[in-house]
Amino acid sequence: MPVEESGASETEHNFAVWALKRQATPEEAKEDFDKLDEMFQRLCYPLGVFVNIDPKGHAVFPYYGKFSDRLYMVTAWLEGMAVETFWK
Q: I need a labelling partner for 80 at 20 to 30 A (CA). Which of 5, 9, 28, 46 fits?
């Protein structure tokens, strides 16, 4: 429920924040990591997920932020008729 309707503060009831990209480059991933860091800090999200769909070379990019205990990363791609994933 939106803050305007619930009366809760903008940091209450936040559970997870997501960033979803298709074939993200290292630079795009870094930009998203910076945005996720801001949401962790300002909006108190306890969990974040960065999803990179169909990355070249099935890449998982390094995260150097201070919220590594909250951020999970997954790459997903189609291999034949099956969806393959890699979590970090």
A: 28
